[in-house]
Design brief:
The complex is a heterodimer of chains A (222) and B (108).
Chain A: H1 2-16, E1 32-39, E2 42-50, E3 55-65, E4 71-89, E5 92-109, E6 116-123, E7 126-132, E8 136-143, E9 146-147, E10 150-151, E11 154-162, E12 172-182, E13 190-199, E14 202-208, E15 214-221
Chain B: H1 2-18, E1 22-29, H2 34-46, E2 50-56, E3 61-66, H3 74-83, E4 87-94, H4 98-107
Antiparallel strand pairs in B: 1-3, 1-4, 2-3
């Protein structure tokens, strides 16, 4: 029974399928990708399917909450990812991506007297730049979360290093440091040191942010 | 009797040489992590001509061993690797098996 529950949970995660936590926010041609990013104020599931080596379409669900817990936003959207440009060098890869979506944001603002609820159409265009070698990683993402009278632009910067070079079929551990902010929901910058483990088609990241909250990310390509 | 044995050995050696293993070794730019390079491996394995595939990130190499009697052009290999998002620097055809390529590269 426990095994079945575990399988159901894993299958659900894979099917629903996070934040663009690695160099590639999509898999190879004709592959599916499932990603998840979970912390107290940010929970995201993303899945996409690569219809070409440069284009992927998918669905995503994103729950965001303000630091004081008075504002919540749930975004359900169709997403599109495009590899705009890639530079391959002997020992590095550099990418420039477009990541965007169109969907519905369901919002709740707690107010004295009467809470405010709303449903609006939201668009979320953004760009990501990343640079990676077998030992170093850097990426930055800026994404607009816009609806009528809503502006929750998201900015993230990540940098890290791997503890050692690994073979293709070995697990490679990394240290990653991320700083991110969601405009309009948090005035603070969330900083999270994480350990990342990459093995072939799967990677996980675990860390604790500067608010002492745990964080878990995963990505799976199949 | 001795003559017969010698002839048999000669035929056996000759047959092995005629059906020698063929492995295509491509040096690839941009292949920095297993997570991203698996696209190349999966596409290569899908080919009907493929016996085995080996990826070495440190040496930036993709090696494809072909089934007996099968061929694969350099152009096809280059196209598959380019489509996966990487650049081919050079291609070499070798008579080593994947096991031999692997043992040589990993011994260095």
């Amino acid at each position: 029974m426990r095994q079945l529950s575990f399988k159901v949970v894993v299958s659900s995660l894979v099917l629903l399928s996070s934040h663009y936590a690695t160099a590639s926010p999509m898999g190879f041609d004709e592959s599916y990708m499932a990603m998840g990013d979970f912390t107290n104020n940010w929970q995201e599931l993303v899945s996409n399917y690569a219809v070409s080596p440069r284009d992927a379409f998918g669905l995503s669900i994103n729950y965001m909450r303000s630091d004081d817990k008075r504002k919540t936003r749930a975004v359900e959207e169709f997403n599109y990812t495009r590899l705009l440009k890639r530079w391959n060098a002997p020992h590095s890869q550099t990418n420039f991506w477009f990541i965007g979506g169109v969907g519905i944001v369901q919002g709740k603002d707690k107010r004295p007297g009467r809470d405010r609820y709303f449903n609006k159409v939201m668009v979320t265009p953004g760009v990501q730049f990343d640079y990676e070698t077998t030992r170093l990683y850097f990426s930055t993402l800026h994404r607009l979360y816009r609806a009528s009278n809503i502006n929750h632009d998201f900015t993230s910067v990540r940098a890290g290093f791997s503890f050692y070079e690994a073979d293709y079929d070995q697990t490679q551990p990394w240290f990653i440091l991320e700083a991110r902010n969601m405009n309009g929901l948090s005035e603070k910058i969330e900083v999270t040191p994480m350990l990342r483990f990459i093995n072939s088609s799967f990677f996980v990241e675990v860390g604790v942010n500067n608010f002492h909250q745990p964080r878990f990310n995963f990505m799976y390509i199949f | 009797m001795k003559k017969l044995l010698l002839v048999s050995i000669f035929i056996a050696l000759f047959s092995n040489a005629a059906m020698a293993t063929q492995t295509i070794k491509a040096k690839v730019n941009g292949m920095v992590c297993a997570f991203c390079a698996q696209g190349i491996e999966k596409k290569m394995r899908k080919l009907s001509q493929t016996q085995d595939v080996y990826v070495n990130l440190k040496k930036r190499m993709v090696a494809v061993e072909l089934k007996e009697g099968e061929t694969l052009s350099n152009k096809e290999v280059t196209e598959i690797i380019n489509d996966a998002g990487y650049d081919v620097v050079s291609i070499e055809v070798s008579d080593e098996s994947i096991a031999q390529v692997k043992s040589v590269l990993e011994a260095r």
